[in-house]
């Protein structure tokens, strides 16, 4: 078995939590579920359709704003972005529209078409943990960004290993890969970006290093 992010074959089984077996990469620190526990696409889609994610839900709007607000410091309001992995609704794009910021929506299950590329920003709210093939998917995300743009991600960072047996994030069967700051440092280096914001809990913003050369 190899790491699905960096390809390292030195990954170690660290335990069985919530009836699933997990492995940890010694290179990029990714935590991943054993591939035998990956759901079929229709099973995933059925679960996502149960999410009560609507613009009329104040709690969900507040949740998305926790990702949007730190990113506003980096958004050019004349630019265009995309909400990658938006789910079955387009709430984040609606919130940004209310701020006169143009944002498209993409989701492989519900809105599978991307008609543009070279975006100025990408939001990825609670989707990184669902990637069955994170190396391929993250590469796709960065291919959509132009120089000087940024990627803003929300996904809960791994706790200490001793806390994994009670970590609620592992309970969701659609959550299959889990990141730490070390993991995002690996991603930042590989894709020539730099970390410009991190709350050390669940939100991180990656800015293309080439932005420095364009200023």
Characterization of this structure:
This protein has helices at residues 41-48, 58-71, 91-97, 134-143, 181-190, 211-214; strands at 11-17, 20-25, 31-33, 80-84, 102-106, 119-125, 145-154, 177-178, 193-198, 203-208. The chain is an alpha/beta fold and 215 residues long. The protein has a single domain (39-155, 181-214), classed as 3-Layer(aba) Sandwich (Rossmann fold), CATH 3.40.50. The strands form 2 sheets. The protein has a 6-stranded mixed beta sheet, sandwiched between helices. α3 (91-97) links the parallel β4 and β5 (102-106). The chain is globular.
Counted beta strands: 10
Amino- and carboxy-terminal Cα gap: 44 Å
Helix proportion range:
10-25%
Q: What is the CATH class name?
A: Alpha Beta
Structural class: alpha/beta
Gross morphology is globular
Which topology does CATH recognise? Rossmann fold
- Which stretches are low in confidence, meaning pLDDT under 50 for 5 or more residues running? 211-215
- The named CATH superfamily: Vaccinia Virus protein VP39
Beta-strand residue fraction: 25-35%
SS field, number of helical segments: 6
Q: Give the helices and strands as they follow along the chain.
A: EEEHHEHEEHEEHEEH
Radius of gyration: 17 Å
């Amino acid at each position: 078995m190899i790491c699905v992010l960096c390809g390292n074959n030195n990954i170690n089984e660290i335990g069985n939590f919530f009836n699933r077996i997990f492995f940890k990469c010694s290179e990029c620190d990714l935590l991943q579920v054993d591939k035998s526990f990956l759901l079929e696409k229709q099973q995933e889609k059925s679960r996502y359709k149960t999410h009560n994610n609507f613009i009329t839900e104040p709690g969900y709007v507040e949740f998305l704003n926790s990702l949007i607000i730190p990113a506003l410091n980096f958004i050019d309001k004349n630019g265009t972005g995309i909400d990658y992995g938006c789910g079955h609704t387009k709430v984040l794009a609606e919130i940004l529209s209310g701020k006169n910021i143009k944002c498209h929506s993409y989701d492989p299950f519900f809105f599978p078409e991307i008609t543009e590329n070279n975006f100025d920003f990408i939001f990825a709210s609670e989707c990184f943990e669902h990637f069955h093939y994170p190396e391929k998917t993250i590469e796709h995300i960065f291919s959509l960004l132009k120089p000087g743009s940024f990627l803003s991600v929300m996904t809960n960072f791994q706790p200490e290993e001793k806390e994994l047996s009670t970590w609620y994030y592992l309970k969701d069967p659609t959550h299959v890969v889990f990141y730490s700051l070390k993991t995002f440092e690996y991603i930042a280096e590989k894709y020539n970006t730099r970390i410009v914001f991190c709350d050390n809990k669940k939100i991180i913003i990656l800015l293309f290093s080439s932005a420095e050369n364009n200023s």
